[in-house]
């Protein structure tokens, strides 16, 4: 049997972290078993579905590299097929028309709640042997309900949660077509999973309550029942449901915030799944290791610090040309342009100097921007480190830079020479140089910074301070 999994988002918003993890697990399961991964867009909620949300889902999947083998299929393009299947169920007596008005159903719900009962449809229009139905009212277009079994149990061996049993007495007759004739979400899912040959349905545990209804409809259609795996929700660090303040934003926001897709994927893979103590692994390794037995049934917690740690690792490992192309765009968005002027430092070398210090690509871009434009100076740092007693030593060094062999080693030797001649400690020279050249007192080795900035730029920036003091 060929394994076939699916990811079936509703385009009513962006692809968020929870959806991305579901997509990743479904994708990895198919890849692990040399199966097929199907992308399906469940766009039956016409009022809330938008083309922009569809594109956001496709963009997010593309950025993460979660390629699909079939699709994307759109439910709105399959409406006629759903209606054919509904008619088949009507013809076989497995579905029926219900003429209850909205007001009648609201009144029924009120009575049941007052009596402490679970609100549910009472089956007044359900045809049964020997039962007389009410006269068909005028002016009320009927919905179509599925004739759910009234006895017995629905049970399945959930691949994450274990055995689940739900009594049919807990389930009422689900509406499968609205009064305007459009099929409902739960019914479309059933037909799609059946006709697309889905063998494993991996989805969030907010769908557990839908599963017994869907299983009963699949039985009514004579369809094979897929295996179900319901993933527990993702919580924030505070144990609350994941929200925007925790990171439940569009996956593409992580791109904008400077995360690498490799880091996001690696992080998502460890949200509720584990392979021993392995923390860092490629997607090839993940697909080889992945199974549903090691998914925890308890909720996973989103941890931004852990994501930053992983992102930092992948930045250190990334191809420099790839990083340079990305950082060039990030700098340009801040009106900082690489390659302008003959003395523009080599971006790959600059990135290599700084990437061990950055958690995100945005941090990396911000920290190296001073190489390509004159930075604003931290006034507090300038007051603290650029003092009148240190300026003579800085001027001495600046005069000698003009004729110096330009290498890190020679620059370092000159700083040491000036430090010795003026009876100073190394930081007394290095710190003011950092402020003059980078705008603040934090940077990698000042000799490496000076080398990459270039002789003319270093002398020019130093003179802006020494000539005015």
UniProtKB/TrEMBL annotation:
This protein's assembly is summarised as: Monomer.
What is the annotated localization of this protein?
Cytoplasm
Q: Where is this motif: 'HIGH' region?
A: 9-19
Q: Reaction(s) catalyzed by this protein? A: tRNA(Glu) + L-glutamate + ATP = L-glutamyl-tRNA(Glu) + AMP + diphosphate
Q: What region holds the Aminoacyl-tRNA synthetase class I anticodon-binding domain?
A: 342-465
Q: For bias kind Basic and acidic residues, which ranges apply?
A: 120-129
Question: What's its job?
Answer: Catalyzes the attachment of glutamate to tRNA(Glu) in a two-step reaction: glutamate is first activated by ATP to form Glu-AMP and then transferred to the acceptor end of tRNA(Glu).
Annotated region (Disordered) at: 120-141
Q: One GO cellular component term, please give it.
A: cytosol
Organism from which the protein derives? Methyloradius palustris
Q: What is this protein called?
A: Glutamate--tRNA ligase
Could you tell me one molecular function GO term of this UniProt entry?
Answer: tRNA binding
């Amino acid at each position: 049997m060929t394994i076939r999994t699916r990811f079936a988002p509703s385009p009513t918003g962006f692809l968020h972290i929870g959806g991305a993890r579901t997509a990743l697990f479904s994708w990895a399961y198919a890849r692990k078993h040399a199966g097929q991964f199907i992308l399906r867009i469940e766009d039956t909620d016409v009022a809330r579905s938008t083309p922009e949300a569809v594109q956001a889902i496709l963009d997010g999947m593309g950025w993460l590299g979660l390629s699909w083998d079939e699709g994307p299929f759109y439910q709105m393009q399959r409406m006629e097929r759903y209606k054919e299947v509904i008619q088949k169920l009507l013809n076989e007596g497995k579905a029926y028309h219900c003429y209850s008005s909205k007001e009648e159903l609201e009144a029924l719900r009120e009575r049941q709640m007052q009596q402490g009962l679970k609100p549910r449809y009472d089956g007044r229009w359900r045809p049964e042997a020997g039962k007389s139905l009410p006269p068909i009212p005028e002016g009320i277009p009927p919905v179509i309900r599925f004739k759910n079994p009234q006895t017995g149990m629905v049970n399945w061996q959930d691949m994450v949660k274990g055995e689940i049993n739900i009594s049919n007495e807990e389930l009422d007759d689900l509406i499968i077509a609205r009064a305007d004739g459009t099929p409902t979400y739960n019914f479309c899912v059933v037909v799609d999973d059946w006709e697309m040959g889905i063998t494993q349905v991996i989805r969030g545990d907010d769908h557990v309550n839908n599963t017994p209804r869907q299983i009963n409809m699949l039985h009514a259609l004579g369809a094979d029942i897929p295996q179900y795996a319901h993933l527990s929700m993702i919580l924030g660090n505070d144990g609350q449901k994941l929200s925007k303040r925790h990171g439940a934003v569009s996956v593409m926001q992580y791109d904008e915030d400077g995360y690498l897709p490799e880091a996001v994927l690696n992080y998502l893979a460890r949200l509720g799944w584990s392979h021993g103590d392995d923390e860092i692994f490629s997607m090839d390794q993940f697909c080889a290791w992945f199974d549903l037995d090691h998914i925890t049934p308890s909720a996973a917690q989103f941890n931004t610090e852990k994501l930053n740690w992983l992102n930092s690792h992948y930045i250190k490992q990334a191809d420099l040309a790839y990083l340079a192309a990305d950082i060039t765009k990030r700098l340009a968005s801040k009106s900082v342009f690489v390659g302008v002027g003959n003395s523009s430092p080599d971006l790959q070398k600059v990135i290599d100097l700084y990437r061990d210090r950055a958690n995100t690509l945005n941090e990396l871009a911000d920290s190296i921007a001073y190489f390509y434009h004159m930075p604003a100076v931290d006034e507090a740092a300038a007051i603290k480190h650029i003092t009148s007693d240190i300026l003579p030593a800085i001027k001495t060094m600046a005069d000698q830079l003009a004729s110096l062999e330009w290498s890190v080693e020679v620059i370092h030797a000159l700083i040491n020479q000036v430090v010795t001649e003026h009876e100073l400690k190394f930081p007394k020279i290095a710190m003011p140089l950092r402020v003059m050249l980078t705008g603040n007192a934090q940077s990698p080795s000042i000799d490496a910074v000076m080398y990459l900035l270039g002789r003319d730029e270093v002398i020019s920036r130093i003179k802006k301070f020494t000539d005015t003091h």
